[in-house]
Design goal:
With 205 residues, this protein is α+β, with helices and mostly antiparallel strands. The chain contains 4 helices and 11 strands. It starts with 13 loop residues before the first helix and ends in a 13-residue tail after the last strand.
Amino acid sequence: MSAPTAATGTRLANDLLAARLTARFPGLATSEAYGELTVHADAPTLVDLLTFCRDDDALGCELLADLSGVHWPRGGHDIELQPTTTGWPTFRLSQEEGRVEVLYVLRSIRHGHVLRIAVAVDDEDPRLPTATGVYETANFHEREVYDFLGVEFDGHPDLTRILMPDDWVGHPHRKDYPLGGVDIPYKLDKHVPPPDERAIREVVR
């Protein structure tokens, strides 16, 4: 079977995508924002859900377009969205339990639709089954999420760092990772303080 090169099938609207998925997996929750569908799943369902999205004729998600993650530590957090430049206000988010949310973006080249699968795991021991048996490209995506967020993907054939040095300590995209300044070795040995200690664009001599 040759790989499709353009959308030639039937593109499903988000409500129809959600209905097809929840009919097959009744425990799923779905949400929509800014025209994008997110399917909220759990770890035990993940591989079966990805396989269904790939193999179901109406869904036909042949491509794992992206796999990323975000860390939401326990406690309250002020999210500042630079209202002076974007107009978005600061809001406060509270987490009773810390979690790492792993996001899988699936695309159907044949049909032209896109959906996101979100799976949240405990940030103390973040662990998911590997998706490499469903999408081969998950190999490199999962290594990056492991490298930056510390998520262990059980069954991955080579779960090693992909961007940071092999002997690096910690996972730098976690929000509990220590922040550090940057020494700039020119013009009076300037130093950029850690992000939580500086104003925007501040450079201290």
